[in-house]
Amino acid sequence: MQKPAPSDFPVHPLIRDRWSPRAFIDKPIPPEVLRSLFEAARWAPSSYNEQPWAYIVATKDDKANFDKVLGTLVEFNAAWAKNASALAIAVAKLVFAKNHAPNRNAQYDTGAASALLSVEATAHSLAVHQMAGFDPEKARLALGIPSDWEAIAAIAIGYPGNPDSLSQPLKERELAPRTRKPIREFVMTGSWGHTAPFASK
């Protein structure tokens, strides 16, 4: 299933076609494709080129580790994410490696890496659904995450499936129109609340 964004202005097809489904088919992701996804994350920009991200990944054929990651998700997300081909936890290092000073951009930079991963996934006909609905402390204990790192998101990766495979409430969400705020609401110039002239159309 495809669900292109009804963008107000032209965007690259990979941006238009990226979305976050909950229905996945049971199809393994080739290792070379997984490598490309995380290679894309590797080349994300970061403060001082710190690259403060890590991903703990489990493919569905690695049942023990897949279940460990799945077990960190809230029940609502686990119910559909169990059908993904791979699950991951995105982790951010909270301090700089060189001096152990707090890195206030760590989460931002890890988000940038995950965004590039999701765009690369779209290029391979894959879908990525990032989730805040997981237990970071449970992830820390289950996956041995060090104290100066923080689990910030769970990620489901797979090939989009049939919405009919979902419960009725989730199916309705899957089929609902995609919406976003118009850029005039969040692109400003000069001072807060003053819409940038180019965004006012």
Structural notes for this entry:
The chain has 201 residues and is of the alpha+beta class. The protein has one domain: NADH Oxidase (3-Layer(aba) Sandwich). Helix content is 33%, strand content 15%. Strands 1-2-4-3 form a four-stranded antiparallel β-sheet, sandwiched between helices. Helix 2 packs antiparallel against helix 5. It is globular and about 55 Å long. The relative contact order is 0.21. The model has no long low-confidence stretch (mean pLDDT 97).
Topology:
Layout: H1 13-17, H2 31-42, E1 53-59, H3 63-70, H4 75-81, E2 86-93, H5 106-123, E3 127-131, H6 136-143, E4 149-158, H7 168-175
In short:
With 201 residues, this protein is of the alpha+beta class. Helices cover 33% and strands 15% of the residues.
* CATH architecture name: 3-Layer(aba) Sandwich
* Gyration radius, rounded: 18 Å
Count of individual beta strands: 4
| Overall mean confidence score, pLDDT | 97
Alpha-beta classification: alpha+beta
